[in-house]
């Protein structure tokens, strides 16, 4: 049987790009994209992508050339997720929240041949390319719904002109013929909160498998209405850029995920699905009190959402599924698959179960929690800590031009995530912390996420983050940074927060210091900058008092930052 050869009819490279021509055939007249007053059908979207791919090839964009784009969630960015690979090139969607220096760092490293720039980011892009010796060709993306007439110095081409030009040469430059599913599809950069961002390379195979897996595990059927509240630059929209084409859905594009934009889109278009980092939950909660007329399915990830926060957002009609992923894993690699028997549990217990990261994606060959020293699996007891490790075809190819970091990320056939977690008796994984965020106090490991989950239960707390601060006897002790809901600043004091925690957790886990902030510092993907908070916490010192043996300490502040 091994002598039977592969043939063109029975062995075709896997690629998520194949979802687009299928959508154009099966869902030809169905709306593919809605953006303001602009709409396209799947047939139109396919044609526009073919045109752009032809135009890129005419511009001598070759296989493995990088094409970068700095744009919000607009039709152009969506189309480029298909058109750039259809030209044989590699798409690099840049985080739009980065400053010019960070954008310049990425351009210098990615070395794109072309940089597409939305009119909203002309200033940032202009400043970013100013000091680059061999800057990429610039293409301006004007607003397709309401053209602004904006111009960009050095940009001789405009996106719609390029699409039109491609339409004239379709016959000469057909879509690139993919021969190897290991070919590079996209280049995504890590957020770089603790070091310089690394360029993560995805293969066509990895993106295809992850897309199909996630669609199935989240239970998306055909013709959903998907709201782009999640940035497409974030792991290519967790692969839903391609997934919505696979099921003939409608992409509702908004330039910014404000409460007004999201709620207006939900009401106007009958949104059925959306993705969001937990940071968006507070935006949705603060802007509305009454439940939605129809439920909206929400996939969340990026940071462990506290159970209390999940309860609040679900009260509004957002049905949350929790997922876990990372840039190096092509997005989502664990989903908290919901079991029907949990439906009868109390709301607080359902929220606790839903806050877990869940079970491995179908595209993975393995997901485990292991002792990073022995590489042995930890017991399924829900308490023994280990590092979450992954293996499977949806993992990244590696870090671009960084062989050392690539080799360091893989060990004994596994990818080491750096996340600390436990495995519950039912096999569901729960993240307890990043390895660098675990607080070691007097030899005891304190998971900052557990302390944060208690802080979120306080009715006045809007956001919370816990990091280590120095302690004269125990080495480290928890320090909490908290932002309060509007109207609570004058009412809630540090003693009340500390007392609240002491009633709900072991005393050694209770924050010894609570620092109030208007907003917690976040990176461009919405994650709290714990490195910055740790540096701030180092300025706090605890002075032991006569009551130290009872666990009471007096706080002094070395300096205020």
Please give a structural write-up.
The protein is of the alpha/beta class and 561 residues long. Among the domains are: 35-177, Rossmann fold (3-Layer(aba) Sandwich), CATH 3.40.50; 438-557, GMP Synthetase, Chain A, domain 3 (2-Layer Sandwich), CATH 3.30.300.30. It contains 17 helices and 29 strands. It has a 9-stranded mixed beta sheet with strand order 2-1-11-10-12-13-14-15-16, sandwiched between helices. A 5-stranded parallel beta sheet has the order 4-3-5-6-7. Strands 17, 18, 20, 21 and 22 form a 5-stranded antiparallel beta sheet that branches. Helix 2 (42-58) packs across helix 6. The chain is globular, with a radius of gyration of 24 Å. The termini are far apart. Residues 544-561 have low confidence and may be disordered. Residues 22-400 form the AMP-dependent synthetase/ligase domain. Residues 450-527 form the AMP-binding enzyme C-terminal domain. InterPro entries: AMP-bd_C, AMP-bd_C_sf, AMP-dep_synth/lig_dom, ANL_N_sf.
